[in-house]
Design goal:
Elements: E1 3-12, E2 22-30, E3 33-38, H1 45-52, E4 60-65, E5 68-69, H2 74-80, E6 81-84, H3 97-107, H4 112-126, H5 141-153, E7 159-163, H6 171-186, E8 190-194, E9 207-212, E10 215-218
Parallel strand pairs: 3-8, 3-9, 6-7, 7-8
Antiparallel strand pairs: 1-2, 1-4, 4-5, 9-10
Helix pairs in contact: 3-4, 3-5, 4-5
The structure holds adenosine-5'-triphosphate and magnesium ion (MG).
Amino acid sequence: MVTKLQLRNVWFRYSREEDYVLRGVELDLGESELTVVKGPNGSGKTTLILVAAGLLRPESGEVLLEGKSIYEQLPLARRKIGVSFQDPEDQFFNATVYDEVAFALRQLKISEEVVRARVTEIARRLGIEHLLSKLPYRLSGGEKVKVALASILVYEPEILLLDEPTAYLTPENKDEVIRILKELKECGRSVLIATNDSDIAKYPVDRVLKIVNGKLFAD
Ligand SMILES: Nc1ncnc2c1ncn2[C@@H]1O[C@H](COP(=O)(O)OP(=O)(O)OP(=O)(O)O)[C@@H](O)[C@H]1O
Ligand SMILES: [Mg+2]
């Protein structure tokens, strides 16, 4: 298995006055792998996602993208890694849902025709076509989660780090999201889902990890 993203003995805390949230975390995320990280509220799932994405820097330890420090390849890493935030509003900054979903593709200088085709396709799959002209902030909780996902899935990054991607979703929507993620994994993508959603347990995934006292374990 080709390893895409690695955390090596990662220690992270939000400040010197606080306890460590991640304590010697080890994680290998492989190509064509769908991994779920579970853990109670406040156990460090979101922190783990942000550190793995290179958005928070650990006090010690390493975060390696394809074997090299992620911090030395940041512009490229941003393209290779798609991150969805637990609060989707944290990732919205466009005036319409369409622009939000199209944004990453437009950065890649793809023709507007292809952008439209890709946006339309992912919107159809996630059932958000009727929302494309709306203001992202005005959506319902589940709609926001779907739009946030669409904005990442649309450009098919090699690595997907998704924080609670099924929050607020109905069972049918969860099924569709998991189906899409599995397809991406079959196509070679690495997918890491941080979640408290017990429904996720229904779906067969490659690996379930649990975060306990700041360490990751096989469930
Ligand atoms: N920006 C921050 N500054 C200080 N402490 C923080 C910050 N963000 C999170 N924490 C603390 O870090 C710990 C881990 O939080 P984190 O959000 O990673 O947990 P989580 O497992 O994602 O929880 P949830 O299931 O509620 O989403 C918690 O004790 C939290 O209070
Ligand atoms: Mg969280």
